[in-house]
Amino acid sequence: MPFRANHLSHFKTLASIRTPRVTRVLAWMLMATIVGCILFMMFVPWVQTAPGTGAVIALDPRDRVQNITALVPGRIEQWYVTDGSLVKRGDPIARISDNDPNLLDRLRAERAQADVEIVAAQQAMRVAQLDVSRMETLYREGLAPRRDYELAQIKVSDYAAKVAQAKAERTRVDVSLNRQSVQMIRAPRDGRVLRIQGGDNATMVSPGDIVATFAPEESQRVVELYVDGRDVPLIHPGRRVRLEFEGWPAIQFSGWPSVAQGMFDGKVRAIDVSASANGLFRILVEPAADRPPWPQEPYVRLGAKVRGWVLMDTVSVGFELWRQLNDFPLQFQRPGNVPDASATNPTDSNADAK
């Protein structure tokens, strides 16, 4: 201080100026902030994520929304359900009637006639076989010519052909009867009728025409997410995924999963090998067995929109800022150093901290 006083003694005006206390405090605060930011970016971890959007779907194709079609041509005679009706397996949905109201009666009459023809032909064939035996005996004894014996054999063959023809006709009638028996359209399984798309009695339907849309009630649900192709090479089955369901309150912190609220955990089940029509790659996410289950209906229904973040490697905040500013891809492990799917880096420990 004496040296400073002696040094400033030649500059009396400068010596009379004192730095305000507020300025010194602000300078120290600014320096502390800069040092703190540098330390924060160097030592605070950040979990990189690959974002994606998608929807809730059913894993089993039979559990997805499906169309109920008419199996026979005709007119819809009666509806047993309306939009939104709950049905059990085998419950009637609609009944189709043929344009010919007497078709079933005629088919049954044709089948009865075919049965009679079969019985008559079989009886005649048995008689013809007895005649063959008698002609064979007479032929061997020389009492009948060979031609009569061969004609008897031909007659047996003719009756056998008539029996076969009558059975084929009965089979054809049975097929027609079976087809007409599906005039009653029934629910394939437990579920809900979403929409009636058929007409009234004046509307003709053909086999394959859609008459209703049906959705099963119980299904194993998964989430399909569409992610950018730049991130797909770094995603593998078993990666942890954080999910935000549409309509479910949530707060997401991408780099700190343990701080997020209202999020649900999943893991990557499968990855498409080719891009979808939108240019993105689809991944399937299933519930994580060691985490709380996903919300059930009616809170999260099939088709509900979902946002997801695939948890990748853990880096420093500074590295992540540098990567974002340069638009570089996510950090990756060299081949052979990819972490095991059951222990996907420190992200699991972050999730456990929730």
Automatic annotation (TrEMBL):
Is the keyword Transmembrane assigned to this protein?
A: yes
What domain of life? Answer: Bacteria
Comp. bias (Polar residues)? 342-354
- Residues of the region (Disordered) are 335-354
- Residue spans crossing the bilayer: 25-47
Q: Provide the alphabetized UniProt keywords.
A: Membrane, Transmembrane, Transmembrane helix
Cross-referenced Gene3D superfamilies: 2.40.50.100, Helix hairpin bin
UniProt keyword annotation of DNA-binding present = no
Signal peptide residue numbers: none
Q: Which InterPro entries match?
A: MFP
Annotated PANTHER family = MEMBRANE FUSION PROTEIN (MFP) FAMILY PROTEIN, MEMBRANE FUSION SUBUNIT OF EMRAB-TOLC MULTIDRUG EFFLUX PUMP
Identification of the protein by name: Multidrug resistance efflux pump
